[in-house]
Amino acid sequence: MRIKIDLALCQGHGQCAEEAPEVFRVVNNPTAYDHTELIMESPDEALRPKVERAIRYCPNRVISFEG
């Protein structure tokens, strides 16, 4: 599984980091929108349920994955 985030549209709401903190973290940016950063671009298959929830609950729908 390979995760992608459209950083141009990410506003750093943090839902993904709440659902899968092993995979995502929010980077606080004092001069612009916060954004999400991938900790693991290709997480283990055991994390798939958490990644799927992170994708489902992203308010801006900017996360996707292949595989």
Any overview of this molecule?
The chain has helices at 15-19, 48-57, and strands at residues 2-5, 24-27, 35-38, 63-66. With 67 residues, it is of the alpha+beta class. The protein is globular. The protein starts with a strand and ends with a strand.
Features:
single chain, 67 residues, alpha+beta, Alpha-Beta Plaits, two-stranded antiparallel ribbon, 4 strands
Task: Tell me the layout of helices and strands.
Elements: E1 2-5, H1 15-19, E2 24-27, E3 35-38, H2 48-57, E4 63-66
Antiparallel strand pairs: 1-4, 2-3
Quick overview:
The chain is an alpha+beta fold and 67 residues long. The protein has helices spanning 15-19, 48-57; strands at 2-5, 24-27, 35-38, 63-66.
Whole-number radius of gyration? Answer: 11 Å
Mean pLDDT across residues: 93
Largest beta sheet: strand ordering: 1-4
Number of strands: 4
Number of helices: 2
Query: What distance separates the N and C termini?
Result: 4 Å
CATH class term: Alpha Beta
Structural class: alpha+beta
Helix content: 10-25%
Principal-axis shape equals globular
Kindly report the oligomeric state of this protein.
single chain
SS strand fraction: 15-25%
How do the helices and strands follow one another from N- to C-terminus? Answer: EHEEHE
Largest sheet descriptor: 2 strands, antiparallel
What is the number of domains?
1
Q: Which stretches are poorly predicted, pLDDT < 50 over at least 5 residues?
A: none
